[in-house]
Design goal:
mainly alpha, about 180 residues, elongated
């Protein structure tokens, strides 16, 4: 965020901060659609600010560790509830409608103003687990994109070799060696 709290700051505009396909507008396509890598203009699972996603995920993980380590009084549990709810709200702002709906379905609201430590631990563990799953989905999309690109490159090379051999030219030698 900028200093006035509106719009992305330079630190939010880290297109390569998280895996996935980046289309130049800091949008990471997080899923695989129809068995193929997502197109830059396709609808589906997207993250508009990957650097913010990484920061929120790191914060959620640290909060989970803190809840595990120390006993909390009522004020601490109340504050952690507020932070948890704000984190969910912030995540909703950077996720595509598909991912936002999934997050809302997975994360259940607290039932009391001051949740117990076990409720806080479960809620944080659930959020951290969902975020880890999201990151694994991004990694899977990247792996699929890379494998598809390598296969396309190999096919282009095979075609070029066939075309040069059909034309009677000696095949091009790969690399600088004789």
């Amino acid at each position: 965020m900028t200093t006035d709290g509106h719009g992305p700051a330079a630190s939010d505009a880290e297109p390569g901060a998280v895996g996935g396909e980046v289309d130049g507008s800091d949008v990471v396509h997080a899923g695989i659609m129809n068995g193929a890598a997502p197109d830059a203009g396709a609808d589906g699972e997207q993250i508009t600010r990957p650097a913010k996603l990484v920061r929120l995920a790191s914060m959620a993980s640290v909060m989970l560790d803190e809840v595990r380590l120390a006993p909390l009084d009522d004020a601490g549990r109340r504050r952690l509830r507020e932070i948890h709810e704000r984190s969910i709200q912030e995540l909703g702002g950077i996720l595509s409608p598909d991912l936002r709906a999934e997050l809302e379905n997975v994360v259940l609201p607290f039932t009391s103003a001051v949740p117990s430590e076990s409720e806080l631990r479960l809620a944080q563990a659930q959020l951290v687990g969902w975020l880890q799953g999201l990151f694994l989905g991004i990694q899977t999309a990247l792996f699929t994109q890379q494998a598809t690109a390598q296969e396309q490159f190999a096919e282009m090379r095979r075609r070029a070799l066939r075309a040069s051999s059909d034309a009677g030219e000696p095949p091009a030698r790969p690399g600088p060696y004789l």
